[in-house]
Amino acid sequence: MRKLSWDEIERPAPEDVPALPKHPVRLIVHNVRSIHNVGSMFRTSDAARIEHVHLTGFTGTPEHKDLHKTALGAQDSVEWSQHDEARPLLRDLSDAGYTVAALEQTDHTRHPDAVAADAFPLALVVGNEVRGVEADVLDAVDFALEIPQHGAKISLNVGVAYGIAVYDLIRRARSLFGPPGDEGRTE
Questions:
Q1: Is the backbone of residue 4 left (phi > 0), alpha (psi -120 to 50) or beta?
Q2: Average pLDDT of span 19-31
């Protein structure tokens, strides 16, 4: 085994990414206080090639220089927008045909890898590092997703949890619809 050099790793050029087909997932980052967590989610969103990142509430935006430390340029290859409030955005996404899910521990959750085909396209809400997804936002979603945890701690870092969930979601979407831009064909 040999580690690949940067030149050997197949990847699209950053300027080509906006035109590439995306997985049918959007991210809503609501009231996340750490700009490093936000940057990490941008980087993961680029790797997962999702449609869009919506930043709501007091979540920092790519204009913040510290985001660049963890995003490493992903803020330039992922479409994003900023919204003062989450609920109107969730209503707009729902009206546009998106199922809205929260990544949160509730009394009725499902696992990301068990999402049904009719739940796509899907908008995933992640919340504050301490409080999680706020109750008024949770009231506006269609269902909650939870990552099984087997240790003593009851939560994961929001950026880590998002990474696990989004990869389960795109794996599920690809098993149902094939790669983005190739809908109808399964892998």
A1: beta
A2: 95
